[in-house]
Amino acid sequence: EMFTSLQNVKQAISVERELMENLKTYIDQELERLEDIKRFHAKVSNLHAELYNSPAAAMANPLVSYTLIKRLRSEWLNVVYSNEALENLQALRSSYEEEEADLPKTEDLQGAAKGLMRLQDVYALQVSSLVRGLFRRVTDGKATDIYMPVVSILLSGDDCFLIGKVAYEQEDYYHSVPWLEESVRLFRLAGGKWSPENEGTLEDALDHLAFSHFKVGNISYALSLSHELLHYDPTNGRVLLNVEKYEKLLVAAGPTRSVGLRRPTSTYLSTRDTYERLCRTQGSQPIHFENPRLYCDYFTNNNPALLLLPVKREVLSLQPYVVIYHNFITDREAEEIKGFAQPALRRSVVASGENQATVEYRISKSAWLKGSESCIVGKLDQRISMLTGLNVRPPYAEYLQVVNYGIGGHYEPHFDHATSPSSPVFKLKTGNRVATFMIYLSSVEAGGSTAFIYANFSVPVLKKAAIFWWNLHRNGRGDAETLHAGCPVLIGDKWVANKWVHEYGQEFQHRCSLNPEE
Ligand SMILES: O=C(O)CCC(=O)C(=O)O
Ligand SMILES: [Fe+2]
Known about the structure:
Oligomer: single chain
Number of domains: 3
Distance between the termini: 42 Å
Number of strands: 19
Bound molecules: 2-oxoglutaric acid, fe (ii) ion
CATH architecture of the largest domain: Sandwich
Helix content: 40-55%
CATH class of the largest domain: Mainly Beta
Strand content: 15-25%
């Protein structure tokens, strides 16, 4: 599951370097092989040129006759039935297979394609721009580049075809149509030029695009694409039948009206619009005079250790109570934590009944770091404790969860606290997750904000900062206002670390109250 962690994707670069070296060896060997064959061809050509002048005299020479017969009975056989090409190919294949374990799987290709479609949706990106390497949003006919990539890349017809096919296979024509449109356009531009690395062809793209249009009710377009397809493949029986069907449908229905493409409905439909708006913008940011109870300060929590170096604190929201602590961690500490976590990263899971499951709505890898594993982790625990006054020693808090997001990696709106008594959160037997302390271990170039759905604001990824909020009301009930999400990472390698503090052990810091609002 390479696609769920950008760290793993980065490692794939060195695998491809290895493959490149093997391919170079293969090319050299094949060139050498063809050189040898060319030499043989030239030798025989030269002989024939001489023979041509006086064939009778030449054949009278028994040495000439012998070598002719020898060539035909031996040399030609050796050339024509040589295994060298196959041996070279087999060497190339086995060197590829040696890398097998480190190569992405089909699910990675699908996951990466879905990640791109997620970015397209959440950030309202134009597919025709993405294909040109641009991150452009078009609203009311106005184009805005929401990010200028440092490294730009153009997608090929085949690149688009495989994305379109992933959508097509899920019967998701909302996405298959624009991606296959681009694929057809690019394949047409390439003029049917064959590339050995391509999986799809113009015909394949036309076929899938025609059917996608048919499925969304755009029959006349499906028909014209099918005609174009028949031009390349006139005897394709299936397409001939489709054409017949489309023509009949058109006669029966009269001129068709194009049905607008509708996005597939997701499980989070109710909050999707707010969530996506918060991912695209920072939401409504109250200004000081609108809410004078929001403030920033240098905070010591009356802790002697913080007196000399107070922490820059900003109260972001009162309901729910969310604060950000700037420069909570140093660059070096962040790098060290990431380094520790890296070998232990595994696909992130979510609570599903009594168990844990991998889901599409959380695309990342994570690792749990114990305080005893490195003194940095212990130091962070101490610092969290000093700032929040909370007891973060196990089992009153969970180990530090380090998370690395993947391609279009995200965590859709969720609660950190358990919402059912059977949740694995209760396995620690120290109650529910009363608070979250989340550290940003990296920055990102675009996307990846933390969005608070009902509270209507989002926090951009700010390296070295940490955010804190209470998940539970003082009476122990979950605070619905804390519904939050990690927006899809548009550009960058996002890392966070979560410290989840439990109810028990905090009795004097988070006192009970009968007021359900508190
Ligand atoms: O990555 C983020 O911004 C949010 C992560 C989060 O909510 C979580 O890991 O529970
Ligand atoms: Fe969360």
